[in-house]
Every structure is written in structure tokens, then in C-alpha cells.
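User: C-alpha cells for this one?
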Amino acid sequence: MRNIFIISIVLLSFFQFMHSEESTGEVVLYVFSLGKPAKDLRAIFDEKTVEFTDESGAARAVLNAGSHKVKVTGDKKVVAVAEFLVVSGESTRIIISAKNDGTNSEIEIEHPEGSIEKVDENINKNLAPGVFSGVVTSLVDKSVVPQASIFIKGIRSRIVTDESGSFKTELPPGSYAVSFIHAQFSTQTIEGVEIKENLETVKNIELTPASIELDEYVVLVPHIQGGDCIINGGKKGIKCSKRCYRGRADVKIG
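Assistant:
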């Protein structure tokens, strides 16, 4: 009888563990200020879980499936507040463009596939994949940039350059917006990267060191085309039509 009781307890614990594992998802938060990753900001999820942004401006948390809220603070000020959805076994990404002029931050949210109605017509997952590759270097001295994070709209896997500054990954054919992020460099975003079936697309990128300000180079915060764009302080999200990022006068929101 005692053995049956012990087995029952073990099985109950196992099923509770499996249920817990299956009912959680990940949220990845990126915070940028003046086009550069914002480090050491507090990301407070549901007023309970606290994480800090790293050198890439990123903070991660595993949360139960459902609706959640995050508040980002720094220097005793609230940078942004956003509500988002976590889907079991999936990843939600949030990009916050913090402003230093006292105006509201811009927030973009990419929920997992299936949790939003919009389908990106620019990506065809029924075709054989193509390859996206290249080398990331410094604009100033042409030295390679290892450990640069590559943010591809619609792709949730983490891509990082190796010790030679190189990257290579397979992608479904389509058109992508791609951002290159490194703590010591200004973030650069390129749009319209075309990936074709069974072909390799090569893009070599030069990043501007964060300590250098060049007027002729426009630095764009990573953005999620077609994702939910929220102007912090608003009551609900709105859709981005073409572009949704800070620092430009031609932002189109609608």
C-alpha cells in the first residue's frame, strides 16, 4: 500500500512538472536608446519577476502562457510599459525604442505565429530554404566583429557572429528586415534582404563604433514589420504599415 502511495506521488509530481513545462513560453525584450543597446535597465514582469538588460539591450524571462505586463525602468524613471501575450512553448519578442526628450517610447511586439491573425505574405515557407550569410566588420578599421547578434524579422532563433565575424543561416524564401546588434557599435538595420530558394544571399555589414557619430549614416533601431506597434502610454496597440522605429520623421503608423 505504501509503495502504491509513493508511486502515485511521483506520478503526480511528474505530470505537474510536464504541465508546467508545457504551459510556459519565453519573452525576449530588447531596449534601445539613440540606436544603441541600453544596458542595466530593470525589466519588471507582472510586478514580480525582475530581469536586467545585458550588453545587447536584451532581457529574457520564462512566463506562464497568457497575458502579461512588463515595466522597464532606469535612473528611477519608467522607460516603458507594455502588455503582451505569451504562448505555450513559443517566444514573444518586444522591442522598445527609448527616447531621451521626455516623449513616449515606441514599442513593438511580435507574438508567436498562430496568436495573431496577420500572415506575412513576403515569406514562403512551402519552398526549399535559401542561405543568408556574410561577415560583420567595423567601419573604422575593418576589423571583424564577433558576438554580434543578428535579429531577423519573423525568425526566432538566435544568430550570432563567430570569432571571424561570420554568420550563416538557412531561411525560408522571402524578403526580410535584418538588424545587427553589438554593445560596442551602433545598431544597423537593412530592409529588403531577398532570400531565394536553394540560393545563397551574402551581405557583408560594416558597423559604426558607438563612440562615433557620423551624420551621413542613419542608425535604425530593429523593428518588426507588421507587428504590434504601441506608443507608450496609449491604451491599445496599433499596426505598423511600413516602418516603425524611432529617430525618423517619416514614421508611418496606421
